[in-house]
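hey so u asked for the seq, here:
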Amino acid sequence: MKELIHLKNISKACGGKLILDDLTLTIHENEFVTLLGPSGCGKTTTLRILGGFESPDKGQVLFGGRDITSLPPNKRNLNMVFQNYALFTHMTVADNIAFGLRIRKKDSAYITEKIRGALKLVNLEGFENRSVKTLSGGQQQRIAIARAIVNEPRVLLLDEPLGALDLKLRQDMQYELIRLKNELGITFVYVTHDQQEALTMSDTIVVMNQGCIQQTGSPEKIYNEPENAFVADFIGDSNLFAAVMVRDRLVAVGEFIKTDNNGCPDHPDSPPFIPS
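ran it, structure tokens below
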């Protein structure tokens, strides 16, 4: 896949506390990337720096090879869906969706067509004249996404957009987001602390802790081959044991040696644990 975004040596501190510590990350075109980690790990700050809502203390944000570190949000070819949706409650659904288009001075016929297409895409056709205050949480979330996608961004940033929804609706919206990503053909960068959500939706998961990336890879890679104890403990249910790597594919755990072929390297049919 073609590289689209490169965060290079990003550091950020606030109140004397280091939030991001020399973070480097590459994101490719048409990829669904999830930043996953516990509260306070730096994932939302990373998203906000990418969106232009915060500036790094050092480092660069490259977009298509161009340095956009100092560009304001409205000059970047991306849109953000916030955790609280940030809809204008005094406006109708149509006016909320059209807000960015009107700022860009698009003509009324173009705006009307884009509103109709966006509402169809999020399965809310006929809601143009409804007040957003009358919508459910799931419907408001869809309107926030519709408002973002009418501007045709190359990247959609989503900051825990499903956090306020009940379990069933969250699961439904997970599949809706995957469908939207596939239909739109754009890059999604998604922030969550929910491991199951990340494993369900992502092409690539970036596990973060204390301002650093712990591991980057596919859901299968992250789950089956964690690179350290933090990732193993954070993803799924794990039993952790102190062990020594004897050599490649051979691990000594206490008084036992464990291999990857369920037996001694020289005797594949042996029992899985061999006394040392």
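The two ends are 46 Å apart (CA to CA). The chain is about 30% helix and 30% strand.
lmk if thats what u needed
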